[in-house]
Amino acid sequence: MTAFDLLSEPIRKYIRDQRWESLRKIQEASIPRILQTENNYVIISKTASGKTEAAFLPILSKVNFKERGVKVLYISPLIALINDQFVRVEKLCEYLDIKVTKWHGEASKAQKDHLIKNPEGIVLITPESLEAMFVNRPYNIHHLFSKLDYIVIDEIHSFLGSERGVHLKSLLSRLQQANENRFKVVALSATVSDVNEYAELKDYLGNSEDTKIIRDNTPKPINVIFKYFPGPVTELPLDLLKDLYVRTHDSKVLVFPNARGRVEEVAVKLKMISERVGGHKNYFSHHSSVDKEVREYVEFFAKNASLQNFCISCTSTLELGIDIGNVDEVVQIDATNSIASLIQRVGRSGRREDKSSNLCLYSTDKWSLLQSIACWLLYTEKYIEPIQVTEKPYDVLLHQILSIVKGSSGLYLVELLDKIAKNPTFSNITEIEVKDIINHLNQIDFLEKLGNEYIIGVEGEKVVNNKDFYSLFHTPTFFKVSSNGVKIGELPLTPQVREDENVYLSAKIWKIKYIDFESKKIEVIPAKDGRKPLFLGDAADTAHLIREKMLEILFSKEVYDFLDQVGQLVLQYFRVELSVFKVTNVKKQRPLLNSNDNIFFYSFAGSQINKTICLLFEEIGIDYRYDESCSIFQFKHSELDLLEKIKATKLNDDQINQILYKHLERNPSMINFSKWGAYLPLRFQAEILKNKLYNFDECFTFLNKIDYVFNEHDVD
DNA sequence: GACCTGCTGCGGCCTG
């Protein structure tokens, strides 16, 4: 029997009505497996290869929807993705008379109420909405979701390795605890590459024995072009913009310039060039600080612009699977911080099966060029940075303790401990540690003991009853920008934000007329000339793998024909510049440049290792400078012996803790990258720092492994 | 110079 024959008749009719010539490879593979086994599956396949159908065609054929209760729960990281998938899944479900309900913060209340009256069919939800239900309406969890057959998790890679992912893992376990029968999980992803990560994925889905991987490895042809236009960080070179304009004026393009300020710069300046030469007007910007309705309009325009060209300058907001239709070319300005990101971005072009992807990588300095080459080579070698596993997610545990207690009407300690013990998310955290955290929450009035039962305490109520409770990530508050009642976006309060200052936002130029500090609002009017907006933020971490590859490229003789002529020359000069070091083994050796009074240490190490080295320098009292963009440390020649000293240092766990306590006491805000970590006892905060911000194990392994290679002759 | 993600309940106002 073919995969098609295995499907139920209504589904086959749906396929015939769609006039599909055949099923996609990934669907052929998934249909018999999902239909004929009770396993969990991870479906890995390229963007737009029919993954959603690969999951839903067999699930809808298999599941008995006659029984009362929601049978399939689809979980997505984005509201926009839920709205897209709703249209697709509902169309499919019309053939089977199955109800599909959206459940997220912007979904209709009436539809939600209707579902509560008639719990049935399929629900599309976000992790945060699920959390909110556990907290505020725990009986609805049971009422709606205790008869689940399948859970589908979309874009699973966006959860792996993040606190949000740990949060979801905990919610999945709590859902399983509310179900009499074991539900199956089908996870979808475009970017899981290394076979080593399968174990991680299987563990994530909670049942490694019964979890299988289905993947389509068919390569997709990609045309890649590298272009080099040197310029300062502050402003993009005009030549680059002109070149970009000429390349893209008669096609559909996504440009990824890595930062919101630069996104605006690209959108506004390309639009100005286009106006001057009479090109199309469809230049947009798309990032988290562009007003939501404006962003939705941009997405709508792109999806429906079959006859019109457009150019959207964007951040990672357009990285995940939101449907914006077909794009001819993807442009990356300066290197991505991860290979995963590069994969997602490349996947946005050439979405049709017969079309190849087009990628153009611009660089504005030699380090960025080097990083771009590294990411590209690793991409072609099918590497992805490893997933960061949190062994002991104390901060998520603290949040989940509050959630469990709030969702109950008083809980004995044994009951609370039992619920946590049953949740594999926290299996590496000991019962003693859990009790410590509960006691601490009691002390700071987040929990309170009423008789022998725990309830939420006075301080806890403030936190738990706030709408900010449901997520595991921070969002800064910005000033809302509008013009004459029309919402445009938002800006952080930087020195740049002053009355009469002109600024770019939403691909337009504005003059700031009035700032209302009380209500955090900015009123603007259109203007002719201005500057790109400044956003506060930290650079994303760069993986060790990428930095190591950069060193490898510098000390290899390989000629890359994908580079343009200037790029070839820049790389050649760069190699000559570093040839003063006789590096023969890139795994073990690191350059140390002796120049006048200063030493430059080229660590070529991942951001976490470098941050840990910074902490060690501070601890020893070395006066140093560190540049994250090129992974270089600079310090006085007189400190040279200290580098050897650090190398010889083997701090034990206790010593590391003492250092971290000292830093935390001096600067408590250093834990703030973890939203809930700030409420933990100090020693748990130190553990979070040790595993998330720093990495002492890898840092010492790295330092012990490497030999310093000095320059052979003097350099000015 | 530096990414992104989500959101309950309730009171109050408006419209049909």
| Tally of individual domains | 4
CATH homology superfamily name of the largest domain: P-loop containing nucleotide triphosphate hydrolases
CATH C-level label of the largest domain: Alpha Beta
Alpha-beta content class: alpha/beta
Helix content: 40-55%
CA-based gyration radius: 27 Å
Average pLDDT over all residues: 92
Distance between the termini: 74 Å
Summarize the structure in words.
This protein is of the alpha/beta class and 716 residues long. The chain folds into four domains: 213 residues, P-loop containing nucleotide triphosphate hydrolases (Rossmann fold), CATH 3.40.50.300; 159 residues, Rossmann fold, CATH 3.40.50.300; 77 residues, Arc Repressor Mutant, subunit A, CATH 1.10.10; 134 residues, no CATH class. The protein has 26 helices and 26 strands. The radius of gyration is 27 Å and the shape is globular. GO terms for molecular function: helicase activity. It comes from Chryseobacterium paridis.
Q: Which properties best describe this structure?
A:
716 residues; Rossmann fold; DNA-binding; Arc Repressor Mutant, subunit A; globular; alpha/beta; single chain; 4 domains; six-stranded parallel beta sheet
What topology emerges from the helices and strands here?
Layout: H1 3-6, H2 9-18, H3 25-36, E1 40-44, H4 51-62, E2 72-75, H5 79-93, E3 100-103, H6 109-117, E4 122-125, H7 127-136, H8 138-145, E5 150-153, H9 163-178, E6 184-189, H10 197-204, E7 211-215, E8 222-228, H11 238-248, E9 252-256, H12 260-277, E10 283-286, H13 292-304, E11 310-314, E12 329-333, H14 339-346, E13 357-363, H15 366-380, H16 394-406, E14 411-412, H17 413-421, H18 431-443, E15 447-450, E16 453-456, H19 458-464, E17 479-483, E18 486-491, E19 502-505, E20 508-516, E21 521-526, H20 544-554, H21 565-578, E22 589-595, E23 598-602, H22 607-620, E24 624-627, E25 632-636, H23 640-648, H24 653-666, H25 682-693, H26 696-705, E26 707-710
Parallel strand pairs: 1-6, 1-7, 2-4, 2-5, 3-4, 5-6, 8-13, 9-11, 9-12, 10-11, 12-13, 17-21, 22-26
Antiparallel strand pairs: 14-16, 15-16, 17-18, 19-20, 20-21, 22-23, 23-25, 24-25
The chain binds one DNA strand of 16 nucleotides through residues 77-79, 104-106, 126-129, 131-132, 135-137, 158, 162, 164, 233-234, 258-262, 287-288, 315-317, 319-320, 337, 341, 465-471, 473, 475, 534-540, 628-629.
GO molecular function: helicase activity
Domain Helicase C-terminal: 240-395
Protein name: DEAD/DEAH box helicase
